[in-house]
Amino acid sequence: MRVFVYNLLTLSLSLLLLASTPVHATQVDSELRSVLKQTINQADSFEDRFDAEVWLVDMSGRLQRFIKDDKRRLELLRAIHREATRAKLQPELVLSVIQIESYFDHYALSYVGARGLMQVMPFWKKEIGRPDDNLMDIDTNLRYGCTILSYYLKKEKGDMIRALARYNGSLGKTKYPEKVLLAWERRWYTNN
Asked: How many helices (H) and strands (E) does the chain have?
């Protein structure tokens, strides 16, 4: 059965690659194939290669609307999965937070000074004694953001609404958590 599913996934990947190729092209984009293969082989936060391939292909298709460059998109997905898994968060929740916080702009800067993909406030750098950390760096931003969100989920005993409101600095209000959960439901949710 697993071989059948793997072959089906390979066929789906080929179709996805063909769909992303211009109509006049006759071959699968070999660069995308190479990037995807490398990304899957380096995906160290997955149980196995098959899980990596399934998740990365699925999420890459969903994220393509926001990030057109295949290599950048797959590298970001691998980083999100790694940091979310490390913090014991669902990667799809992190994708939802990023969509609402920065619309996948890792150079995003809010009017109150929050920075990067997950809109981390710079005071955290001083609080933990790392003033030189660059919150516009994707890996650094994801590490901070996922750690903070995970902490708030534990503090709120799994109450997603309260944890997301804390993350956004709007505890007691539901507008922000509802936006994140709606993004999760509409774009990122999986049955896994």
From this structure: 9, 0
Distances (CA, A) of 65 to 8, 62, 92, 137, 143: 24, 7, 16, 22, 24
In the predicted model, is pLDDT for residue 6 greater than 60?
Answer: no
Cβ atoms of 98 and 84 closer than 8 Å: no
**Residue range(s) defining the domain that contains residue 7:** 1-13+30-86
Dihedral of alpha carbons 100, 130, 80, 157, sign: negative
Distance of CA 143 to the CA centre of its chain: 12
Residue 121 in domain: no
Q: How far apart are CA 74 and CA 96, in angstroms?
A: 16
Q: What is the pLDDT of residues 57-70, one digit of tens each?
A: 999 999 999 999 99
pLDDT of residue 143: 93
Provide the token pair at 69. 């460059």
Number of domains, the chain: 1
